[in-house]
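Q: I'm building a small set of examples for a reading group on sequence design. Run inverse folding on the following structure and report the sequence directly after it, with nothing in between.
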């Protein structure tokens, strides 16, 4: 079995080489992202391995199918970039539902602490032997209220971390977890009570711009917004307006709505055309990391292992535990439940 691996980075290769060798799967690495113009690179491959900013819209899926691709192995949890209905009946889509919720939750807290205690500014100052503390006053997290939107694997770990800091936690989830000791409130109440708001829900039509101008209006003055989930959960223009109006106290973003042409690459010698991002980065109370929250040794190892095991299960006809459910509409005759494969 041969796999075309798109958007390959140097940190992907050691763990994927290890597991592909172990399972006898051939892998061709391509640095380019998957899209209509690059899909042909998958010629001769039964599968493609894709990441968060690869384009798996209907035309790309059709092209891959025509080339003989029968499996898409996502090496990530989110799948908002995949047209699942275009895949149904043609190409199986497998993902890595969990690889390290700790990696993302810990990065979220790292961003919060960096922002609140001005660590990024202090680091720059002391490197130049500037030991002034002026302008570095932070505040205690202890006793503050964290509002968590999305209480799945990552959200739950982040809640535990916040509790460890003595924060009070409230949460909103469309499907609240039962008997987990989490205080669920409405979205409105979460906006009005939280000192810190952290997004841990998937991106969908429902959650698109869940933080927009209207939501920001309902927040406390000085609210800190954390987004390590997906960029389009926040309306970036509305965020900028909220920051300029001094309503938003700080924003920590590991993801950005228009990240796909920028993140994961070095533009330090270039003029970046995205004025919204440039303006956000120029703000003293905004911290941006480039979709880095997942990037720990443990997560990379788990991602490679699960992705390669998913491909091995596909190849051997075994049940596809991590296949994405297409919601074919058939509740009684759900093939995934019966055959453990969608089709
Ligand atoms: P999960 O599936 O375990 O949890 C998602 C939670 O969101 C669930 O509890 C679900 O009920 C809730 N939810 C669904 N629709 C909702 C809605 N309309 N409103 C409020 N809540 C809703 O997912 P997990 O593993 O916790 O990941 C969360 C997100 O984190 C992923 O969707 C992905 O976008 C992002 N992520 C980001 C990474 C990074 O490197 N920055 C790495 C991994 C994931």
């Amino acid at each position: 079995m041969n796999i075309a691996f798109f958007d390959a980075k140097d940190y992907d290769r050691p763990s994927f080489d290890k597991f592909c060798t172990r399972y006898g799967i051939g892998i061709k690495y391509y640095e380019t992202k998957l899209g209509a113009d690059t899909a042909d690179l998958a010629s001769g491959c039964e599968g493609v391995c894709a990441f968060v900013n690869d384009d798996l819209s209907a035309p790309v899926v059709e092209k891959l199918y025509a080339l003989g691709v029968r499996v898409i192995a996502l090496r990530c949890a989110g799948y908002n970039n995949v047209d699942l209905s275009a895949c149904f009946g043609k190409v199986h889509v497998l993902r890595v539902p969990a690889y390290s919720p700790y990696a993302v939750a810990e990065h979220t807290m790292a961003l919060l602490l960096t922002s609140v205690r001005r660590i990024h500014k202090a680091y720059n100052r002391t490197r130049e032997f500037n030991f002034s503390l002026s302008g570095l006053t932070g505040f205690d997290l202890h006793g503050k209220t964290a509002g968590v939107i999305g209480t799945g694997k990552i959200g739950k770990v982040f809640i535990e971390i916040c509790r460890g800091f003595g924060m009070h936690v409230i949460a909103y989830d469309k499907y609240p977890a039962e008997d987990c000791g989490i205080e669920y409130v409405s979205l409105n109440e979460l906006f009005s009570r939280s000192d810190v708001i952290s997004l841990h829900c998937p991106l969908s039509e429902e959650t698109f711009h869940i933080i927009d101008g209207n939501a920001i209006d309902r927040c406390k003055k000085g609210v800190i917004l954390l987004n390590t989930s997906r960029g389009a959960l926040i309306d970036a223009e509305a965020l900028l307006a909220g920051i300029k109006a001094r309503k938003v106290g700080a924003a920590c973003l590991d993801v950005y709505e228009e990240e796909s042409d920028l993140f994961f690459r070095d533009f330090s010698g270039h003029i970046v055309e995205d004025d919204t991002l440039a303006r956000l980065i120029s703000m003293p109370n905004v911290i941006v990391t480039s979709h880095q929250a997942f990037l720990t040794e443990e997560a990379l190892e788990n991602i490679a292992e699960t992705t390669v095991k998913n491909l091995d299960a596909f190849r051997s006809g075994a049940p596809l535990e991590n296949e994405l459910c297409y919601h074919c509409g058939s509740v009684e005759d759900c093939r995934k439940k019966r055959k453990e494969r969608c089709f």
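The two ends are 20 Å apart (CA to CA).
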